[in-house]
Amino acid sequence: MALTKNEWIRMEKEANAIRNLTLDTCNWAGGAHMGGSLSSIDFLTLLYFKYLKFDPKNYDDENRDRIIVSKGHIGVAIAAIFAELGLLDPAELKTFNLTGSRLGVHLDSRKVKGLEASTGSLGHGSAMALGEALAARVTGRKYKTWVLLGDGECDEGSVWEAAMATASFHAIDLITVVDRNRFMIDGNTEEVMKLEPFADKWRAFGFDVIQTDGHHLRTLSDAMEKAMQAKDKPVCLILNTIKGEGISYMAGNPKWHYGAMDAENYKQAKKDLAEFEAKRLARVEKEA
Amino acid sequence: MGGMNYTVVDSKRLATAEIYGKTLVELGEKDKRVVALTADLAKSTKIGDFKEKFPDRFFNVGIAEQNLFGIAAGMAKAGLIPFISTFSVFASLRATDQLHTDICYQNVNVKIIGTHSGTSYGQAGSTHHAIEDIAVVRSLVNLKVIVPADGIETANAVRAAYATDGPVYIRINRGFDQTVYADENYGFELGKGVLMNDGNDITVIANGSCVFQAVQAAKILEHDYGIHARIINLHTIKPIDKEIILKAAEDTRRIITVEDHTVLGGLGTAVGEVILEHGRACAFKKLGLNDCFSAIGFHEDLMHINGIDTDSIVKNAVDMMKHAHVVEITAEGKTTKALKFDDRNFEAEIDWTDEV
Questions:
Q1: Which CATH number covers residue B314?
Q2: Overall number of domains in chain B
Q3: N or C end: fewer C-beta atoms under 10 angstroms in chain B?
Q4: B108 to chain A nearest CA, in Å?
Q5: Alpha-carbon distance A252 to A249, whole Å?
Q6: ipTM above 0.90, yes or no
Q7: Looking at CA atoms only, how far is residue A80 from chain B in angstroms?
């Protein structure tokens, strides 16, 4: 079901709350991976708050849908989402990165309930997600498994080992999503290690590729629904995104892969996010 | 281990890996959660029976070890009990990051069976010898490490791994092992060494294919030299059986370790750590590969060349008996046992009573 206007507005507000909480956590923590968090938050909001069959109160239900966030460095965004879902006490976000905290840059699935996997070393998520998907086949369960990759992460050979196996095992209940924000730590993906023709690579590995604007919630939701209806081939959903989306001085700036803010920067970012939300809500009014 | 039905496997007819394959089928019949995975080594690791019996629970991922370990971790998270089978050299080195992060850090219930370990696939050369695997996997948190002495013990180890929650690494050979045990009922227990021969002159601690060599050596030492050697099969490297090691240090004051592995970081190192940390002094010698790659050849020849066979154990034991004497030292009315070496005089330099 495509997003209704009310749902769209609710999702915009949820995404905005998560962006703000991620920013606040970065501020408390003294630094965080803001760029890749902001490029993924729109997708993760729709996934966690609309599509994923996942009840935070029953987070280890064996029939739940799974999401493995392979780009594990966006733990700060996941922590914010979990606070919004009620899986974490929002007050605990103030301990992020601090000595003795359960929460740090890369989240630990043994400590954070509801988190599917401990990730951080890149290129690991796809294989684990495939394992979850194949296990559903063995146990006769019907859940879907999602995996979110960063685009820079796709330099890792293990991503393609898993891609080959996903197609070979015909694991169509596994949906691979790539946050194509075009930046990695050392710069533009095409300058550091060329990924293009990126969609063709996935097609050659046996995937149906769906490309979408990763920041237009209605367009994105249509693409996610299409991905969930895969029948013949597994799907790779490529999200065209902007690293640092929503904050003027971070957007498209690789410097904000990981960064810390001073008081002035933080104030500006809060102002930017408020304006960004207003702009996005105006878009809903115009297009819904 | 309570409540498990033991099936006696026939070691006379079956190679170690075949016994592993058979035991896996037995577990697969009992428990639907057991799945088998490999990376193009189903035939070589003898898990073909499992594939035939349970085709829906068998996964060959092609030549992709990182993927193999990651998939197994995901399956374990979803409640299955994956048994991974590949060569030890690939299990320990080719997918170490996945073993570390996906399996050990998350403490998932994956069992790893590394075959063709040590120099057992001798003809294949150093790309296929696994002489560093124990050093690597022993350092990984949450991972239990077992090195069975023969096929019978492999069956016990596989069942013990199944009965233990969490990751376990089992290191077996290519499959042409000498048989050490007549049957499975000798009291195998994860984390407990097995006394193979009692003696109070010297202790030889071995695992894997070296256990057979050590047992043979004890007979020669007894018969030809009148040396009573204590032989311990320390099949579990982690958690290590401190008690049996310390008792050997206490009783015999001379210890030789033997392993088909580099002397850096394996069985010898693990035993040495226990002795040192408990302030026990004893004459100590590690037999294994001395920071070198092995030659190519048949396993039994390589064991001779690398100094981990019966002859080498006998020679080293006799040598240690000649040069390291247990003496009694009496000080302040208290008598303790200590060591005296022909070629070294510790007493002249330090107060050598070892009761640190």
A1: 3.40.50.920
A2: 2
A3: C
A4: 10
A5: 8
A6: yes
A7: 22
